[in-house]
Amino acid sequence: MAHREIRIVGDPVLRTPCAPIREIDDGVRTLVADLLENVDEDGRAGLAANQIGVGLRAFSWHIDGELGYVLNPRIVELGEQTQHGDEGCLSVPELWFPTTRANYARVEGIDLDGEPVSVEGEGLMARCLQHEVDHLDGMLYLDRLDREVRKQAMRALRTIR
């Protein structure tokens, strides 16, 4: 396990859709260990593999004291109710903008044994699941902002780069 550098907006790995994990080998096991170690820090709710430079479909989370991961996640259900609140991202440091997300989300994927897993939640967990799957699809939360807020975000982004 190792402390991994977080890739910052502008790095092409963040805009490249991640490849599915086809074989669970020592490299994937190391990736999961690194994701779990690196998300387990104050102020971190989720971490996608491409945020540490690995283009594979995997992410970890640390919400309400629960630490976990999922491989090859896909969103299979979103609730009809929405939540509105400021969202931030380790790859977009120091910036938080109002982002609308579904208040409930469920993802399905596999674990390190290749067994099916389902992860679901409301509120912050739902936001995290959607945010991390977006990362794996090559999207940032900035892409989900309303037009005017996105303009503000792009201006703010230029000042921190």
SSE arrangement:
Blueprint: H1 26-39, E1 46-48, E2 58-63, E3 66-78, E4 82-89, E5 92-102, E6 104-110, E7 116-122, H2 124-136, H3 147-160
Antiparallel strand pairs: 1-2, 2-3, 3-6, 4-5, 6-7
Helix content: 25-40%
Gyration radius, in Å: 15 Å
Taken together, the total number of domains comes to: 1
Query: Mean of residue pLDDT?
Result: 95
Q: Which CATH architecture would you pick? A: Alpha-Beta Complex
Pfam family, one: Pep_deformylase
Family: Belongs to the polypeptide deformylase family.
Binding site for Fe cation: 89, 131, 135
Cofactor: Fe(2+)
Protein architecture, described:
This protein is of the alpha+beta class and 161 residues long. It has a single domain (12-160), classed as Peptide deformylase (Peptide Deformylase). It contains 3 helices and 7 strands, in the order αβββββββαα. The chain has helices spanning 26-39, 124-136, 147-160, and strands at residues 46-48, 58-63, 66-78, 82-89, 92-102, 104-110, 116-122. The strands form 2 sheets. It has a 5-stranded antiparallel beta sheet. A two-stranded antiparallel sheet has the order 4-5. The longest helix has 14 residues, at 26-39. It is globular. The protein starts with 25 loop residues before the first helix and ends with a helix.
